[in-house]
Amino acid sequence: MSELNVKEIFAKNIIKLRKNKNLTQEELGEHLNLGKTTISQWEKAQKLPNAGSIEKVAAFFNVPKSMLFEEGSGQFASYGRLVNLPVVGKVSCGNGTLAYEEVVSYEPTPEEWVNGDDYFYVIAKGDSMTGARICDGDLLLIRQQPIVEDGEIAAVLIDDEIFLKRVYKQNGNIILQSENPAYPPMVINQNDNKNVKVIGKLKKVMINF
Questions:
Q1: Same domain, yes or no, for 139 and 178?
Q2: Choice among 165, 169, 194, 197 that is catalytic
């Protein structure tokens, strides 16, 4: 996603957040120790906030930083409680149980998003899913589950590597489809030696900025 698109998404979200609190640009700037001009530039998609300002905005509105850059967030609300979910780099499925072997970090996430289910994040790698607007470095929220419907995007464990693909089942084969024509489908026969397991369904994409 281009920097311009990210600016536009942030602009729409900061306007919603400000108006939900019935604040003027000047009042928001005072709360954040920033000038009205800076807030105006954000809302006109002329510039992006730096890392320190992102921290201030997220803390002031009580929302996750990633949500500030999520397209189509709808009407924002402040979240009463955030839970820390692991950003997973490597998993294993010994004895049929999913285990996180490498946790890169933890991401504050609204408790309302998880509804008591098991969730984790992975980081998108490469450009094989750009047609689904998933880019290298994006943070992907995954609900842990072993089965998905045909055509849904899932995190799939092949041996020790996590792939994000659309999953189809056909004539005993598992077909992992990319969203980039440069990448052919991965067709895996159930009799192959590869250890293939769906470990979760994609629920949200957090834009990398």
A1: yes
A2: 165
